[in-house]
Amino acid sequence: MLRDITLGQYYQTESVVHRLDPRVKLIATVIFIISLFVVNNFRGYLLAALFLAGMIKLSHVPFKFMIKGMKAILFLLILTVVFNLFLTPGEPLISLWKLTITKEGLRTAVFMAVRLSFLIIGSSVMTLTTTPNNLTDGMESLLKPLKRIHVPVHEISMMMSIALRFIPILLEETDKIMKAQIARGADFESGNLIKKAKSMVPLLVPLFISAFRRANDLAMAMEARCYRGGEGRTKMKPLIYKKRDYTAFAVLGLYLAAAVLTVLIP
């Protein structure tokens, strides 16, 4: 399960999506997520599916690698579908004991499952095709206007980048600790909920110690390099929009216009 989490990982390959400016990918991801919550019909979700499929094809990242991240939220996805399926009032379709599946509930459950799946896969396209450093530079550039109201934009972007970078590191550390504890006779699977919670203590304690140690080492390394925040800092590779980025903005504009039309046209 731990190896199925793809958030924060970067897939090294050569593609047009990898070469795009990180600001383009951040804006595209935000617009895509917003569109998922705006569209409310089959045509809108079909359009989102075609757009997402096109981005995956252009990214050259294997589709199997992207859907691995869905396993981590499978329980949440099933729970959301069940709640929408049985708790949404409307025209009854099927009655099971005291539970009733309605036409509106079935429609909402299907749309919610598709929405969550597209949201996770769409976010994975951005993180898998963008290095943490580029992601930091992109976020800092987009949030730059907030500096006028004294928001520490660079520090916020740096913290988000470090958090994303630490996710795969901590997952790998968790996997190593779990295997070491299992080799010593630990059992993380059997027993009731309370017993399973207690069995996690030998896993969580060394994991927290390792996380704090890594955080301390990182802080010392940044201090040794005289890191002093974003004020007056320069970029080795400044972000500059290129022709392919303007083309991507044009495609994004067409997608947004088509998504709005699917909502406005009955």
Automatic annotation (TrEMBL):
Transmembrane listed as a keyword: yes
GO cellular component: plasma membrane
Record-level Gene Ontology MF annotations: transmembrane transporter activity
Name used for this protein in its record: Energy-coupling factor transporter transmembrane protein EcfT
Family per record: Belongs to the energy-coupling factor EcfT family.
Primary localisation category: membrane
Keywords attached to this entry: Cell membrane, Membrane, Transmembrane, Transmembrane helix, Transport
Organism: Eisenbergiella tayi
Subcellular location(s) per record: Cell membrane
Signal peptide: none
